[in-house]
Each structure stands twice: as structure tokens, then as C-alpha cells.
Write a structure and sequence with these properties.
mainly alpha; 5 helices; two-stranded antiparallel ribbon; 2 strands; 95 residues; 8% strand; single chain
């Protein structure tokens, strides 16, 4: 399998974990708590993601956030891929 390294060099994959956590929690504050980081750190990560994807990804609604159509599409493709990565890692990593 050929992987385009330029794609991965252009985006810190940890940002995708932040994206998925915001998507799940629908809150930057709750995402930060579950990731064990500060809310400003999550906000900074979201700013980087917005720049990379050219989309706001989430809009503020009340005390939380709502995903944009682009975020819904990205999450729909990322979730299964991240699950597969997790399964692969769990099968090879030592406890």
C-alpha cells in the first residue's frame, strides 16, 4: 500500500482525535475534559483543523457546538478508519 507522506506531513493526526472527540461530545469543554487537556488547547486544535479543511466544522449552539455538513462527512469516514486503527493496534500492542 502506498501512503502519500505529504498528506500526513500536512496534518498532525492527533488533531483528528480532537476532531472526533468534539464531534462525539458536541462540546469543546467536554472534549477537553475527556482528552485530559485544557479547553484552550482544544480550541487551538480546532482552529488548525478549520484552516486545514477550509470549513468552520462546528458552529456554536447554546453551550455546545453543532457539526457542519463537512464535519458530518469527515466524521462518517474517519470513525470507521479510526476504529480499524484501534483494532490493529490492540492486536499488536503488549498490555
Amino acid at each position: 500500500m502506498i501512503i502519500c507522506e505529504d498528506t500526513f506531513d500536512a496534518l498532525d493526526l492527533n488533531l483528528l482525535m480532537v476532531f472526533l472527540r468534539i464531534y462525539k461530545e458536541r462540546s469543546l469543554t467536554l472534549a477537553a475534559k475527556s482528552l485530559g487537556v485544557t479547553q484552550p488547547a482544544v480550541s487551538n486544535s480546532l482552529a488548525k483543523l478549520r484552516e486545514k479543511f477550509g470549513d468552520p466544522l462546528f458552529t456554536r449552539v447554546g453551550r455546545g457546538v453543532s457539526p457542519t455538513r463537512a464535519a458530518d462527512k469527515i466524521a462518517a469516514e474517519l470513525c470507521p478508519a479510526m476504529r480499524q486503527i484501534e483494532v490493529t493496534l490492540l492486536s499488536y500492542l503488549k498490555n
